[in-house]
Amino acid sequence: MKDIQNTFIEKLHECNQHKNRLLSAKKHLQEYIPIDKSRYAQFNDIDMGFVDQMIFRFSKLQDTMGEKLFPSLLELMGEEVKSKPFIDRLNRIEELGILYKNEWMNLRKDRNEIAHEYSFNQDEVIDGINLIFNSAEKLISIYYTFYNYCEERFEFVRNSKVLV
Q1: Which of 150, 161, 140 is nearest to 19 (CA)?
Q2: Average pLDDT in the 111-131 region?
Q3: What is the distance between the alpha carbons of residues 138 and 144, in angstroms, rounded to a whole number?
Q4: What tens digit of pLDDT does each residue of 63-79 get?
Q5: Which of 25, 112, 96 is nearest to 62 (CA)?
Q6: What percent of the chain lies above the pLDDT cut of 90?
Q7: CA-based nearest residue to 72, from 7, 14, 13
Q8: Are 142 and 96 in contact (CB under 8 A)?
Q9: What three-state secondary structure class fits 96?
């Protein structure tokens, strides 16, 4: 049980890092949002670095939550997860009141939209940046709900020195 607890804490810590970097990137980009063609044309390498950071951290936060934290939470609660497909795990996380499945699936769709970030179509790039900027708040909100749920139920999360 200690191994799964340690791994769970490590993944929460990782998500905290992704969340913090995502918030930092959003803060930097906030003055440009919504981005349009003229604003995008003025972006320098530093601005584009923050765009890259925002997109990367959004993707990593969602991936880590969906692939690592959700199954680990269910395992910590004594539920069988290895044989269950992702949608069944997601349904169970929804039953726990942590998220709405459709919102999560929409966030996944949004994340997949940014696969065209380096497209030659500048409109697609700009739309993708605006989309992720706006979707990030919902993802972060789900993470906070998840984190609070875990903190309320697990003493090892409340007492972790890593998550301070």
Answers
A1: 140
A2: 80
A3: 10
A4: 999 999 999 999 999 99
A5: 112
A6: 84
A7: 7
A8: no
A9: coil
